Every structure is written in structure tokens, then in C-alpha cells.
Amino acid sequence: MRIECQHRDEHSCRFVLSGALPSFANSVRRAMAAEVPKLAIDSVGIYDNTSGLYDEMLAHRLGLVPLRTEEGTYVPIRECTCEGQGCDRCTVSYTLSVEGPGMVWSRDLIPNDPEAAPASGDIPIVKLEKGQKVVIEARAILSTGKEHAKWQPTTVCGYKNYPRVSIDAHCDGCGACVDACPRRVLHLVGRKVEVDGERLEDCSLCRLCDKACLATGIGENSAILVGSEPDRFIFTVESDGAIPAPEILRQSISIIRARGEELSRALSEIAEG
Ligand code: SF4
Ligand code: SF4
Ligand SMILES: [Zn+2]
């Protein structure tokens, strides 16, 4: 099994996973979206809210603000020694106090731990008219996307099979498939159609080329064959800013490895009786 990284920065990464079963590729996707833990606001104490939003709506919007999460800094509250009370090991507190007129921004959330500040300060929460006010205290805890989407560190997390496109010997070079391809994967070289190696990964497996070829009356079988490699997958991951995208991948692999080891231990214990 191999992971080949094609692009990575803090916000996104794109990589090719080779030599893996579809079930493993799906495990990686699920682990990234639903198992990598991050902080999110879970309870809000509202002291004053004369904005146009109901308290519940305001709390909901606060819950969706991505908060920077350093791995290992906090523990899930249900595993903490404080037994759900909330302490420095499991909980981050925020205060926010804004008076209108003006916008309440995510940067107005002031954390007791600066490392757990909102990932972006430019997220609008609610617009206040003159005389309107929002004064709150909020508490963020660590959890995963399995529990609620607000703990999901990815905004995009998907994969597709690696495309395989080939041209048959009975191709007459009419070029119909080239015109039909929306991703410009194919091009004509003289009277021959070729696959542009640099654009192959852009192929969406839509098969419009296949249909265009059949529509030329070439016969029962198209001269272009579209398929995919069964053990090779192109992943695209985007982070909401709480955790850098390459870090989400690294943590997801650690989670899968730990699960595998746990399963292996359990099976050994059963085998030993
Ligand atoms: S399957 Fe679609 S994207 Fe891929 S080469 Fe054919 S027309 Fe282009
Ligand atoms: S449409 Fe078919 S015959 Fe025409 S160039 Fe494409 S593959 Fe060849
Ligand atoms: Zn605690």
C-alpha cells in the first residue's frame, strides 16, 4: 500500500492511495470525516441577546465556528477525571460581548486558551442594529464527527477510483470523443486519439466519450474504453481550518492503525482462550 501526495497545504490535500481495497479507502475517508477529534462549542450561556436571532440559533451558529485544535492538548470530556464537570484538560471557555451597531464576528470570541481561538476571525455570527447586544459565555469540548457534524474537521472529504482510459485499434480518428469530453482528457494527434497523461486524473468517468463514439455508428463496441483501477483511489480533502488537512490524514491513519492493533489483540486473546 502506498500514499502519494500530490498537493498539500494547511487547507487542503490531494493524494493517491494505491494497492488498497475499496473497503480500506472508505475506512480512511470515514476516519478523516468522523473519527479525528476536534474542539467545538457545545454549550452557551446567554446573558444578553437582543439581536435578531433566537438564542438557539445564535448557539447553533457559535457551535459551527471552527476552533484550532492541537492534537493531544485536550481529552474528551467523558474520559476526563473531572467526570463531566469541565476542567482545563477537557474544556475551553470563551467570552463574547458586543454591542451594535455592527457585525458580531468569530474573532469576538475570546478563549481562555489562545491556542484554541477560532480558525478564522472573519466568520459573521449575527448583525446587530443600534442598541442591540450579545453577551455570552461558551464552552468548547473535544469530540468527533460521529457525534455531530460540528466536530467534523473536513468540509470536503472524498475519493474516486483512479481512471483508466484506452483507445482501441479500430478507432478511425474522427475526433467525436475529443469534442464530447468535458474534462479535456483526450486530444487528437494527427488522425489518432490520445489520452493526455497530465489530465487523466481529471477524468470523471462520465463516459460521454464512449457514448459519442457509439453515436458515430462505429458498431456495437465503442473504440474508447473507460474504466478504473480497482485498487487505486484519488482523495481530495479540505479542512475547515481547525486542523491542517495533512494532519487530518495523519491522525486518521493512526486511528485506523490503533483500531487494527486493538482488534488483533482481542482476536489473540480469544484464540488463547
Ligand atoms: S469518461 Fe468523461 S471525462 Fe473521462 S475521458 Fe471520457 S468524456 Fe472525458
Ligand atoms: S469517437 Fe471513437 S472512433 Fe472517433 S476518435 Fe474517438 S475513439 Fe476514435
Ligand atoms: Zn475535565
Observed structural traits:
2 domains, binds zinc ion, 4-stranded antiparallel β-sheet, alpha+beta, RNA Polymerase Alpha Subunit, Chain A, domain 2, Gyrase A, domain 2, 5 helices, 273 residues, binds iron/sulfur cluster, 12 strands
Number of strand elements = 12
Question: Which structural class do the helices and strands define?
Answer: alpha+beta
Overall CATH architecture of the largest domain: 2-Layer Sandwich
Number of domains in the coordinates?
A: 2
Sheet with the most strands?
4 strands, antiparallel
Helix content: 10-25%
Q: How do the strands line up in the largest sheet?
A: 1-2-12-9
> How much β-strand is present in the residues?
25-35%
Q: Which whole number gives the mean pLDDT?
A: 95
What is the fourth-level CATH superfamily of the largest domain? Answer: RNA polymerase, RBP11-like subunit
First-last Cα distance: 33 Å
CATH class of the largest domain: Alpha Beta
As a whole number of angstroms, the C-alpha radius of gyration is: 25 Å
